[in-house]
Every structure is written in structure tokens, then in C-alpha cells.
DNA sequence: CCAAAAGTGTTCATACTACACCCATGG
DNA sequence: CCATGGGTGTAGTATGAACACTTTTGG
């Protein structure tokens, strides 16, 4: 082959930023201001610049969209999307998708890009009712599936929570991401027994009614072994 | 930002083709004929051309290097490597690494590219004794770790084997990839009980000494649940 | 005291570990 | 018959599922 066969491409990093709002998994979407797909909803993202790595580009976008220090969040690669027709512009655009996990954030800086950012329930999108720009429907589905698996084998669920959280908070993370109901007593034992998953603090948090819950913070472990079982509990009979 | 900030890059697909030879995990390496890194060992790979997807480029390279139909092998994405200095050429080159799993193949077509391909024991490389071109040491380490995890939760181990194989063949795959010794009786039960992992055939294979082993072929399942335990068996005391 | 949520104890089933033992074949 | 690797049985242990139960608060 000759070097002339080599395609020159643009490269982007796209972000699937997940959080939990009101017990449901949400993803941050932006309304596209420019062509292609102007007016359509899309994952936030942007072109690789200068001497950045792809990850650095993703971190820059994450900071721009959420205003949060990427070091405090969880960010991992999902994969490359390279279908030649995924972007209609003449110059090919290949993207690398990243999965970001964040606690419930205010949507602050619609600033820099003047694109309106909004949290959208993931369930509304996976059904296929709304179509996203580019191949972002597929990217979203892949990233959500990766997040679901990640929760089984790692302790990232704590990143969805505030710095101090109750065991019920943590359980609701699993229930929102997996869309199942988990057995409360068994979940409690599981996470308290797991080495380095959560660390008890002195504080407690009052609840609307009932016994106050102990507060915990994230522990040093990042792998969860044995993993969290994803089986739904049997629904209580009436 | 202006469109001028967007970097134009070349894109490659690099392959970590793993197989098992003589009970040890091997990877296919090529000696680079051209600069950069001429003379050094590297993972096979090549530039994205025309309207290919990255996966199609990987499949094309796989066919060129091994002469085998990619449809019969296992091929999955590992990730993107985009450090700006990973390739010294003035135009940036970003790569997407793929993990390929293959049965023991003859190294046929050193043909098209006139690069000498060779199977190399992975253990010799992970130690860091030999340095590979580009960031391929890191790519190899990531891909091998991905293969190790993949074996736990999927049935891909059968792809390392010939179409018909014995349970000992399959066990030796796990032992080679994981570098452990597994309990033979328990492994036997585990894989025969697992639904859709292996299907018995009518054949048997004579062994140098001892009872002939039943032959199996790969089953339809691709997930292995519950997963294979990675714990080494206690070494037999003498 | 009652409702509700936090947290603990107990039982049963399953699955894994270790290892004893039997089976089939070649020499 | 013996060595060797294939294959089965089984007892002890660990983990998880289900759910009864106790604890602690607000009203």
C-alpha cells in the first residue's frame, strides 16, 4: 500500500455522563446548535485539539459541560465508533466514547458553547422513542450496559453518591442503574462486609419517618469481590 | 473554538493475536521493515483505508497476517491509544487495539508485507525484557489482561482450541492464559455442567498413556454463568 | 403506642474446594 | 499388572436468597 491510501480523519471524544435524579438514571444531553443534526439532541463531546490525548479531550469536555473537576469523577473508555457514514460531513469523524459517572449535579455552564444541556431519563431514550444525533443511540446503549456491568465488579456506585451517603442511598444507585429491586437486608450485609467498599462515619441522617441511617463515605477499594449479584428480589406478595 | 483547532490524524488498527503453543500463551509479532522503529518487534496492524470501519481494518489485517477467515476467530476492541508522542512521525497516529483469539495457526503469509511474523511467548514480553515498538508493550499488557478476564465470564476459551477438543485441551487453555494449575476433576464438572459451553461428540481421542478422552465441540452459549473461578489449586504435595 | 425505615439473625439452597476413588488403555 | 491420564463421588465450607425479627426514630 502507498501512504496515499491512509485516510485523514478528525477525531472526537463523546461523553455519556450518567447520574441519578429522583431514583432514575439520567444522561446529560445537549441540543445541537450547528449542522449536522442542528436542533437534535446529542451526547456532549468535541474535537481533539493540539497535543491532547483522547482522554484529556474528554476531561476538558467534561469540565466544560458540568463545571466539575474530572479528577473527582469516574471516567472510562467505552469504545471507538467509526462507521464511515456516522457523520455526514465530507471529512470522516471517528469518535471515542467515554462513560462518566457523577453525583447529581446542577447543570451549570450552558455557558461556553451556548448549547442547552439537560438531564434526560435514560429509560426514555433506550426505548427508541427519541432519536439522538449521529450514532449516539448506540453509544448510549453501550455505555449504559458498561455501567451496569461495572457496578457488579467495582465500587464505582459510590461515585453516584454525595461524599457522605447512607446504605439506602447506595442501594438506590444499584436499583436505578439496574432497574431492579434489591433485598434491603442482604444488600446491607453485602456492602458492610465487603472490604474497603464503604467506611462508616460518626454521622447519621434523619429520615422522614423511621430510624436514622448511619452515614458512610467511599472506601479505598475499587474492585468488589465477590461481585454484587444482579438478581432482582422476588416482589413482595400483597 | 474554530474548526482550525481540529487536529487531522491518521488512524490504525493494531492486533493482539493470541494463541496457545506448547502450553504457553503466545502473541503474533512482526519485525518492522520501515521507519519508525525499523527492525523492532511490533504488533501487526495497519492504517485505516477508504471507507472502512476500524473493525473492518482489523479484520483485513488479521486475514493478511494469519490467512484465516476472521469470522471463525474471536475479535474484540481493547481500546484507543492516543498519546501525542506514541508515533514520532509529524502526522499524529491514533490507534485502536483489538484482541484476537485463535487456535494454533501456522504462520503463513509473511507474504504481502514481507514482514517476518513470529509467535512469541507472552511471558517473555510482559517481563519487560524485550521492548516493542510504539506503545505496544502497554497495548499487549492491556489486551492480555482483557483476555484473562474474558475467559472468566465467557466461553471464548473454545476458540483457542481445534474444532474438536478434549476437556483437558480446554483446561490447558485456562492454565496457559492464567498461569495457574486448575483442579482437573472440578474443572471437568464445571464445564460439563455449564449450559451450552461444550457439546459432546461421538469421537474419542487416544492419549499417549491412559484412558482415551471424549471429544467435544463448542456450544452455543457465549456467556459463562456462574463464571470460572480463577483460583489456583493447591499444589500437590510430593 | 403506631408506622416506617434501619439494621440483625436464621434457615435453606447452591456452588465451590479438596481429595478419594474408579475407569480405560498401552506397554 | 502397572502406570497414567480420564472421569465420578462425596464431605466440608462458603456464599447468597429469602424472610422473620429487632431497633430507633417521629407523630
UniProtKB/TrEMBL annotation, chains A, B:
SUPFAM superfamilies: Nudix, Winged helix' DNA-binding domain
Highest taxon, organism lineage: Bacteria
Organism: Actinokineospora auranticolor
Domain Nudix hydrolase: 9-146
Name of the molecule in the record: 8-oxo-dGTP diphosphatase
InterPro entries in the cross-refs: NUDIX_hydrolase-like_dom_sf, NUDIX_hydrolase_CS, NUDIX_hydrolase_dom, WH-like_DNA-bd_sf, WH_DNA-bd_sf, WHD_NrtR
One GO MF term: hydrolase activity
Regions crossing the membrane: none
Listed Pfam families: NUDIX (PF00293), WHD_NrtR (PF21906)
Record keywords, A-Z: Hydrolase
Amino acid at each position: 500500500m502507498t501512504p496515499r491510501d491512509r485516510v485523514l480523519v478528525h477525531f472526537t471524544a463523546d461523553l455519556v455522563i450518567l447520574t441519578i435524579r429522583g431514583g432514575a438514571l439520567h444522561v446529560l444531553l445537549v441540543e445541537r446548535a450547528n449542522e449536522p443534526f442542528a436542533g437534535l439532541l446529542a451526547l456532549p463531546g468535541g474535537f481533539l485539539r493540539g497535543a491532547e490525548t483522547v482522554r484529556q479531550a474528554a476531561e476538558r469536555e467534561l469540565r466544560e459541560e458540568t463545571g466539575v473537576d474530572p479528577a473527582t469523577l469516574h471516567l472510562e473508555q467505552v469504545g471507538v465508533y467509526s462507521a464511515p457514514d456516522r457523520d455526514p460531513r465530507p471529512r470522516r469523524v471517528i469518535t471515542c466514547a467515554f462513560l462518566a459517572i457523577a453525583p447529581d449535579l446542577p447543570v451549570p455552564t450552558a455557558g461556553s458553547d451556548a448549547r442547552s444541556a439537560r438531564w434526560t431519563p435514560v429509560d426514555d431514550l433506550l426505548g427508541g422513542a427519541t432519536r439522538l444525533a449521529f450514532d449516539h443511540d448506540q453509544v448510549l446503549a453501550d455505555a449504559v450496559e458498561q455501567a451496569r456491568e461495572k457496578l457488579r465488579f467495582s465500587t464505582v456506585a459510590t461515585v453516584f453518591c454525595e461524599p457522605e451517603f447512607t446504605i439506602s442511598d447506595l442501594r438506590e444507585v444499584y436499583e436505578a442503574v439496574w432497574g431492579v429491586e434489591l433485598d434491603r437486608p442482604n444488600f446491607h450485609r453485602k456492602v458492610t462486609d465487603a472490604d474497603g467498599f464503604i467506611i462508616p462515619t460518626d454521622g447519621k441522617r434523619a429520615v422522614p419517618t423511621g430510624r436514622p441511617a448511619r452515614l458512610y463515605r467511599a472506601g479505598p477499594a475499587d474492585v468488589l469481590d465477590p461481585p454484587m449479584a444482579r438478581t432482582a428480589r422476588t416482589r413482595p406478595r400483597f
